[in-house]
Amino acid sequence: MIRCIEECGDGNPASVHHAGQRARRMIENARERVSNLIGAPARSLVFTSGGSEANNLAIFGAAEASPPARRAIVSSAIEHSSVLAPLARLESQGFEVVRATPDADGRLAPQRIIDAIDSRTALVTLALANAETGTVQELAPVAEAAAREGVLFHIDAAQAVGRMAVSVSELGCALMTLSAHKLGGPAGIGALYVRQGVVIAQQILGGPQERGLRAGTPNLIGAVGFGAAAEESARVIGEESQRVTALGDALLQDLGIEIPGLRLNGPRFGRIGNTLNLTFPGVLGESLLIALDLEGVEVSMGSACAAGAVEPSHVLTAMGRSAAEARSSLRLSLGWNTAAEEIALAGEIIPRVWRRVASAEPSAGEALR
Amino acid sequence: MNPRVLVAMSGGVDSSVAAAILREQGYDVVGVAMQLAPGASSSIGQRRATCCSHDDFEDARRVAERVDFPFYVVDLRADFAARVIDNFVDEYLSGRTPNPCVMCNREIKFDRLWRRAQALAADFIATGHYARIERDPHGRFHLRKAADGAKDQSYFLFSLGQRELARTLFPLGTMTKTEVRARARALGLANADKPESQEICFVPDGAYARFVERNVDPGRIRGGRIVDGAGRVLAQHRGVHNFTVGQRRGLGVATGEPLYVREISAERGDVVTGTRDELTAAGLVARGVSLVDPRLAQGGQMAVEVKIRYRHPAIPAKVRMTDVSSAEVRFSDGGPAVTPGQACVFYRGDEVIGGGFIERAIGI
User: Fold this and answer.
1) Domain spanning A238-361, CATH architecture
2) Is B104 part of the annotated catalytic residue set?
3) pLDDT tens digit string along B119-133?
4) C-alpha–C-alpha distance, residues A11 and A97, integer Å
5) Which of A291, A306, A360 has the CB atom closest to B43's CB atom?
């Protein structure tokens, strides 16, 4: 990435001159590295500004290109907001949207998705691993059903890629969303895999870049960083996901002993190992989150609203948790840069801080109304 | 380890400078902005419609970055709705004119937020209020008016007791507003010249009656009569929440002599008018009285000065506790219009003795 900035930071890959050609080589090289990670041909990848844009492009692009007889979309209630918000807009424009609900562990029943697919369906869009709970969905049967009905299948794999082996051919999807910063790459770059022959409508107009699917000068520096992160991720994914899963399991065990009533939101197995979504009894998640941050433990909760306060997670409420339980839940994420010593330390700090928060500001009662 | 202080920040210049001063003094400062009003948001292209907006929080966040302390937004909307807004609406429907800032200080900042402060291992809570807290050699805390008389906000703080004062810091109490702005500029704070908020924060357009109507079950709004002192009906009205005792305009009644709202009876739905002279009261009855200084409780009676509205000057009076949380106030020289629902705060010189909420006027 640094070499890229030095050599051709101002090169426009679409230009014919020398700097442009160098930039073009770099971006195509990056495209190849990223596509290798998901077992896709390089030319099927469209760089975007991130996972959210890729989801928007997939959903609006598929809806716009769908034949008039196909005006239904099948999805779930636990998707990322960059999926849910486009679906809500399409619904207001006359699309029928089916949102499947998960079981208590956040798993979607493939058969219920399949039952919702018919000849009126334009698109099925589902995340491979849930952003908040890490729950991994069983999508192969859905892909088969979608193929039978001639329906486009979009997988949001932003959360999964880098934490588990992901292959577009095995999953059998037409479209797949990727995000660079989830695998240690830079923020502000992502990609949409578009299988050869699949037609979706361009959403950012004004140029032929990215196979005519995304106008604008590509983010060269971001793409190069994305490529490097993807290559590294592909190299270490096996041992790294084992390492992180073991750390996560150890932390869960430590916390479970120290915090009576702690609940894991998500399946014990069948989850990407880096994500622990936990309900902490007797505290407001917001308070525990801030208290932990002040102690150097960074956790997250639901999603931030516009003003910066946190809202209870729609994923947890869809899993049957009450609003109060959702407000008592936090997400602990482990990354490639999380060390075993840090996990051991977190295992000491979190119970201590939880006890303090629970006694100073118990969540039962009025605060949760 | 340095003591930790949780500073309530609004995004305005006062609380920003308060935080910066405490940081300079060596406190371990944690800034928080409280999201109080429901549904606050201000996306680009939307008119700024309420307090607790994204812009205000961003102003506070920039101060925190510049001065270098952690900053968080805390969501207290449910508490604010239950403890401040509901009370505000109920008071208006009961024919009183509430002071939600007093209630917010008592219920939210110095109670609810204090519990959050303890959860965050803070030793103190601080705000940008203009008031002073002093500890005497016997370990007793005194709440005093600010050095800047024009900015003094001790009126809104009368409900703080010894326990609250012991854990509260008001870094601006000895400063003038001009000094605060100068300090903000010297610190390079972007909000140094930000205008002050004047209205009640959750009713930024000042249309209280409309706010009440939007926030209650319509069945609770009942029209009634505007009557004179003799009970003659002068006009009809659309709910007692549209009126404040002492109000002159907007009665919709044309008479020779200017008429004022003298009394509001929510039970009967009557708004009773009177002349200016008829507004004059001999004193008032206060409920929900709390005492900063327990001397009054011991003696039962004290010569004080009272403020019966924030912007009114203090006037001499005698206050007598009639039970543990009620007091009778007698003005020494006949008082101005007494508005039920407003706070009546007892002072001796610059010291706050205590205060309560006005229940009713005592006639001459």
Assistant:
1) Alpha-Beta Complex (3.90)
2) yes
3) 999 999 999 999 999
4) 43
5) A306
